[in-house]
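Researcher: Re-running this chain for the archive, since the previous output was lost when a drive failed. Same request as before.
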Amino acid sequence: MQTVIDKIEANNKKTQVVDVRSGDTVRVHQKIHEGNKERIQVFQGLVIKTSKKNSSMSRITVRRMSSGVGVEKSFLLHSPLVVKVEVAKRSKVRRNYLSYMRTRTGKAAKLSGVEFDRESVNAVSDSEVQKKDSVEEAKTKDKVDAESKSEPKEDKTEFSEK
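Model: Regenerated structure tokens:
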């Protein structure tokens, strides 16, 4: 029997998620809200930690160097704000938590790459998310059309003086 928590988690869980492992170099496409605008921002870096792999609370921690400063971000894979996760490179590691990578710089921070089938790993399509996105796009398009139709047209009749 499912508990109430399991039912709620099942509603928010994506149907498919990319198989991300520690040591992968990934590009995470994330929705950013700024005022009333929305855009997609890409964060690319090394996955240093994965947790709760098969849960709806599965999380990855991604680290990258930006202007000589290490920046880490943690992403919930089933979050509606995470649009897409692409695996760019897969490396051979023997741990789940790569905390030692924080102290490494330069050549010491390199990980040996492993060959993998990039297309099959990244070929994950969440049909429900795509349907929601297409519905949202259609709604915004309808709003724009309705606004353009409701604008008053200028009256261009000419009056002749007698």
